[in-house]
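Q: Convert this sequence to C-alpha cells.
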Amino acid sequence: MQAITFSHLRTHARELKEALKRGEEVELTSHGQVIGIIKPSNRKTDKNERAQALKAFFQLGEDISLDAELERIKSGRKGRSHAV
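A:
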C-alpha cells in the first residue's frame, strides 16, 4: 500500500488518480499519522447518483434560490467599514 501526505495530495492528485485506476489503496497521512485510506471504488454509479452525492457532500440545498445565494455572498463582502 502506498502512502501519501495530505499536502502531497493537493499537488499530486493525478498520481493518486492513476494509483486508484490501477486498483491500489493509498494511505493518507498528516504529520506522520495515518488519517485515512483511499480505496478504488468497485461499483459503478450513474450521473444522477454522483450529482446527489456531491450535493450532499458540499451541502448544496435545492431550496436556496440563486438570488438568495447571491445576496448571501454579497452580504459577506461588505468589508470592514460595515462592521458592527
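Residues 47-77 form one domain.
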